[in-house]
Design a protein that fits this description.
By secondary structure, the protein is of the alpha+beta class. Among the domains are: 3-77, OB fold (Dihydrolipoamide Acetyltransferase, E2P); 128-202, OB fold (Dihydrolipoamide Acetyltransferase, E2P) (Beta Barrel); 337-536, Chloramphenicol Acetyltransferase. Helix content is 26%, strand content 26%. It has 12 helices and 26 strands. The strands form 7 sheets. It has a 6-stranded mixed beta sheet. A 4-stranded antiparallel beta sheet has the order 1-8-6-3. A hairpin with a 4-residue loop joins strand 18 (388-390) and strand 19. Helix 5 (253-262) packs across helix 11 (426-441). The longest helix is centred in the first third of the chain and has 20 residues, at 91-110. Keywords: Acyltransferase, Lipoyl, Pyruvate, Transferase. Its EC number is 2.3.1.-.
Length: 537
């Protein structure tokens, strides 16, 4: 009698296993205790032994392939035994069983989200079903951070429907259709998988009862009316300009690119587009005098709200999706990449003089961080191994130098990316960093602005931290930690003088960057910062 061997659960967290190697082939004799295969779990590779005697009649998972726990791994029986009924009827139920388990788990996080299949059976004329968009390559579900339209509101193409929180950022989601919002498929604060029903738009009064049962509203019936009133009041009170007091800067992609190229601070530009949106002509016609007419740009509210301490009372704060992903990625990096650290001290005297001269130019203001980012990008040209990534059985040497800049946000940390940083000048780097940092703190970054980094920089110098180490931002192989510039006594030409010293710490993935390679990179970076003119060579 043939026996079906299923994929074993070899750890508490294992959901699927990968067959790293088969030790038996179809037709081979198998004895109890023989190693059938090597199974790769989420934690290790383990030998899997047979518990029965017989002949290996069927292999359900090819070498190098993965399968869910409890799916058919192999069939063992008597030589020549007919197993057509098992391969046709056993594998399918096993897969079906795993699918049922999977669907049960997913249903817990979907908040009863309506699937597209449930709604497309009877869609009235003129009605459009809006699904949860996939806003990043790694996104599997989205959370509605805020609805900008309520059921019954008129929606035009280009109107902001909602703010969607992905695993990387919170992004605006605009409507592609005209009509009336007939249904919100996901309540505010709720999450749903990609491609499930987010909203339904159509002609006013259309009966969509056949399309799917409406979601239970997350707000009381009175609240939408109150929100409409408040929104109208805010619109009347707020001028139609892109002032720095707004939560985020509204700017077209083309205008944003032009501002970066010209080194224009978008916070100082008045937008002439709809609702104060900055467009191409605003950047073309921008005059520095505009900045003087506006109040100084205040730092946007980004600090996490301080929790009040109550003696003897424990409190809880639910994790946002962004914080959960950050925690997962940092843990994966720390425990998968063998970190080691290199430290060096930099004499910043000449860098301070160079910055002072640069900032004396009209309409120019750069920071030490901008200078460090530029020097780092140029140093990476000379040390491409540091600009590489580990990819299992190979190392990928990146063709572009894209420096990620760590930015603290209320939910934790994000790393917006400066693409082709080595080709940018100080002014462009300064404008890009200010723009991305401002939008990051207000959850205004797009997912593609946080992808593709090849190296990262984290700076805590503004907090007076002299030195620290960072966790590598995978798939990067290194991250630079920048400390504060501190006045210290140093020996110069045999004399003890006061010098401006900054400490740098480089965390490296030893699988890619050897100690000597990391040290040589820091030597080059030290030269560029201590003698800024060498960047021109």
């Amino acid at each position: 009698m043939a026996e079906v061997i299923t994929m074993p659960r070899l750890s508490d967290t294992m959901t699927e296993g990968k067959v790293a190697k088969w030790h038996k082939n179809v037709g081979d004799k198998v004895k109890e205790g023989d190693i059938l295969a090597e199974i790769e779990t989420d934690k290790a590779v383990q030998d899997f032994e047979s518990e029965i005697n017989g002949t290996l009649l069927y292999i359900g998972v090819e070498e190098g392939s993965a399968a869910a726990v409890d799916s058919v791994l192999a069939i063992i029986g008597n030589e020549g035994e007919d197993i057509s009924g098992l391969t046709g009827g056993a594998a399918a139920p096993a897969a079906g069983g795993s699918e049922e388990k999977k669907s049960e788990e997913e249903s817990k996080t979907e908040n009863n989200a309506t699937s597209v299949e449930q709604t497309t059976a009877e869609v009235p004329a003129g009605v459009e079903i809006i699904t949860m968009p996939r806003l990043s390559d790694t996104m599997t579900e989205g959370k509605v951070a805020k609805w900008h339209k309520n059921v019954g509101d008129t929606v035009k193409e280009g109107d902001l429907l909602a703010e969607i929180e992905t695993d990387k950022a919170v992004q605006d989601f605009e409507s592609e259709f005209n009509g009336v919002l007939l249904k919100q498929g996901v309540e505010e604060g709720g999450a749903a998988p990609v491609d499930s029903v987010l909203a339904i738009i159509g002609p006013e009064g259309t009966d969509i009862s056949a399309v799917g049962a409406p979601k239970a509203a997350a707000q009381s019936p009175e609240k939408p009316a109150e929100q409409k009133t408040e929104a109208k009041a805010e619109e009347k009170a707020a001028p139609a300009v892109n002032s720095t007091s707004s939560d985020r800067v509204a700017i077209s992609p083309l205008a944003k690119k032009m501002a970066q190229d010209k080194g224009v601070d978008i916070n100082s530009v008045n937008g002439s587009g709809e609702n104060g949106r900055i467009v191409k002509k605003d950047i073309e016609n921008y005059q520095p005098s505009q900045a003087q007419a506006q109040p100084a740009a205040s730092a946007p509210a980004a600090a996490q709200v301080a929790l009040s301490f109550v003696q003897g009372e424990d409190t809880e704060t639910p994790n946002s999706q962004v914080r959960n992903i950050i925690a997962k990625r940092l843990a994966e990096s720390k425990f998968s990449a063998p970190h080691y650290y290199l430290m060096v001290e930099i004499n910043m005297d000449k860098a301070i003089e160079a910055r002072k001269e640069i900032n004396s130019l009209p309409d120019t203001k750069i920071s030490f961080n901008d200078m460090i980012i530029k020097a780092t990008a140029v140093a990476l040209r000379k040390h491409p191994q540091v600009n590489s990534s580990w990819a299992g059985d190979k190392v990928i040497h990146r063709g572009n130098i894209n420096v990620g800049v760590a930015v603290a946000i209320p939910d934790g940390l994000v790393v917006p990316v400066l693409k082709n940083t080595d080709q940018m000048n100080y002014t462009q780097i300064s404008a890009a960093v200010k723009d991305m940092a401002t939008r990051a703190k207000n959850k205004g970054l797009k997912a593609n602005e946080m992808e593709g980094s090849t190296f990262s920089v984290s700076n805590l110098g503004m907090f007076g931290i002299e030195t620290f180490t960072s966790i590598i931002n995978q798939p990067n192989s290194a991250i630079l930690s920048v400390g504060a510039i501190i006045e210290k006594p140093i020996v110069k030409n045999g004399q003890i003088v006061v010098g401006n010293i900054m400490k740098l710490s480089l965390a490296c993935d030893h699988r890619v960057v050897d100690g000597a390679t990391g040290a040589q990179f820091l030597q080059t970076l030290k030269t560029y910062l201590e003698s800024p003119l060498t960047l021109l060579l």
